[in-house]
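Quick one, tokens below:
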């Protein structure tokens, strides 16, 4: 059974940090590109960061460059999103996505709220 389980969200003050995790099972994790998306209330889902199957290539939305870092551990079948210098505009539900050609899976999402 394919599963992506997102965790690590919560309430944090502006300027704070969070680390999101996504645990995968049921598919060949090391063959998939992993991407974090987010969706704020009333807005479309947007790409935050992605990492290639080997971890050798990463890409970030301009809005998070220099603040967020995506990483993966293929042995543990985990992908992470380290988020620093969080701002209220980062408030959203964050989703992990695994993609390979036409095959794709989604996590259930984890809520991140940045507020004082």
């Amino acid at each position: 059974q394919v599963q992506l389980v997102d965790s690590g969200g919560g309430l944090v003050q502006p300027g704070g940090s969070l680390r999101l995790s996504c645990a995968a099972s049921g598919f060949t994790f090391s063959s998939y590109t992993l991407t974090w998306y987010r969706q704020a209330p009333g807005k479309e889902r947007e790409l935050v960061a992605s990492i290639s199957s080997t971890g050798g290539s990463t890409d970030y939305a301009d809005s998070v460059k220099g603040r967020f870092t995506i990483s993966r551990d293929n042995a543990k079948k985990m992908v992470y999103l380290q988020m620093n210098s969080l701002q209220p505009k980062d408030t959203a539900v964050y989703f992990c996505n695994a993609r390979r050609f036409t095959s794709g899976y989604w996590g259930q999402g984890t809520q991140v709220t940045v507020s004082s």
